[in-house]
Structures are given as structure tokens and as C-alpha cells.
Specification:
Length: 186
């Protein structure tokens, strides 16, 4: 499972690792938010209406769930995770800190063996630079995200492995090494 603060490059590191190791299966989350332009159901997310999401949640079909920004529900479907783990398929979940904590609780209940990986920035100043460089948030949104990032960075000791994202390729290789070691791969 992969977690880290906003703008640390989780998705970029994941994509670089997958380009070299497409055998890794990445869990697709479910959400109640509307698809954004170009998003495909079952590829980017499983898009569910609120009633279907809540029904699946009540049946225990999610490994973890969250309400994000007080609006949309998100969850990690449990069945595909179990299926891929049972088949010994290298499996990756990219989840925020709150979701990671819920996965830890639930994984113990379900007897799932999970390695928790934290992607960290080289420094807080570098994280600020990367966030500003994205150009996707207003200064106020950036300030909010950086406050959240401070909380997320403080949680690093909760994880089994920390990978510092100095460069995407180095971090991607380090992530693959964690996965390969877990699955006994080269």
C-alpha cells in the first residue's frame, strides 16, 4: 500500500514503476463523484451512485471507505484485492493517510498481509515547490494542502518503509524493490 502527502508524486512514482513492471495490479477505487472528462468507469474509478455505494458498504464489500470534502464517497473494493493477493499477483493500493489507517485496522481483521509504504519528499521546501509548480491550486488551496501535508508527514513512523522521492526513477525503482521483495520476484 502506497501513501504520502499531497504533491509528493505518488501517482507519478506509481506510473513510472508500472511502466517498467506492468505485472503489478493497481486497485481501482469506487466513488460516488461524477466522472471527469476522459475518465473511464472501471479504469480510473468505479463510478457508483450513492445508494449502490452505501449498499455495498453495508455488505462489507470495501476494504476502506471515506467521504472526501464532505461530498463524494470513495472506497477500495475488497473482492478484487483478495483475488489478486490469493493469486500471488503483485498488488498495489494508493491511498491517503486516513484510508491507510483504515486499511491497517481492516487488514488485521481479514488476515491480509500488507506492507505499508510511505513516499516522502526530500524536504518540506521541495514539497512546497512541487505543489506550486503543479499550477492546479490557488494559493489558498495550496496553503490548505500544505497544512494537511504537515499532518501526513508526521505519520511517517506508522509505515513499514519510507521512500524519499528525490527523483521519480529512483523512487519507482525503490517501490519495485519493496514489491519484488514481498513477492519473491527479481
Amino acid at each position: 500500500m502506497l501513501t504520502g502527502p499531497t504533491a509528493v508524486g505518488k501517482g507519478t512514482v506509481e506510473a513510472a514503476m508500472l511502466a517498467k513492471h506492468p505485472e503489478v495490479w493497481v486497485s481501482v477505487s469506487a466513488t460516488t463523484r461524477a466522472p471527469r472528462p476522459g475518465e473511464v468507469d472501471g479504469v480510473n474509478y468505479w463510478f457508483l451512485d450513492d445508494d449502490e455505494f452505501l449498499a455495498r458498504q453495508a455488505r462489507g464489500e470495501f476494504l476502506e471507505t471515506a467521504v472526501v470534502h464532505g461530498m463524494a464517497r470513495y472506497g477500495t473494493p475488497l473482492a478484487p484485492v483478495r483475488e489478486h493477493l490469493a493469486a500471488n499477483t503483485p498488488t498495489l493500493l494508493e491511498i491517503d493517510l486516513h484510508g491507510a489507517r483504515r486499511v491497517k485496522e481492516r487488514a488485521k481483521e481479514l488476515g491480509l498481509d500488507v506492507v505499508y509504504v510511505f513516499i516522502a519528499p526530500p524536504s518540506f521546501d521541495e514539497l512546497k515547490r512541487r505543489l506550486a509548480g503543479r499550477g492546479t491550486e490557488t494559493p489558498a488551496q495550496q496553503a490548505r494542502r500544505l497544512e494537511t501535508a504537515k499532518v501526513e508527514l508526521a505519520a511517517e513512523p506508522e509505515f513499514d518503509v519510507t521512500i524519499v522521492n528525490n527523483t521519480v526513477d529512483e523512487a519507482a525503482d525503490a517501490l519495485w524493490k519493496v514489491i519484488a521483495d514481498e513477492y519473491g520476484l527479481d
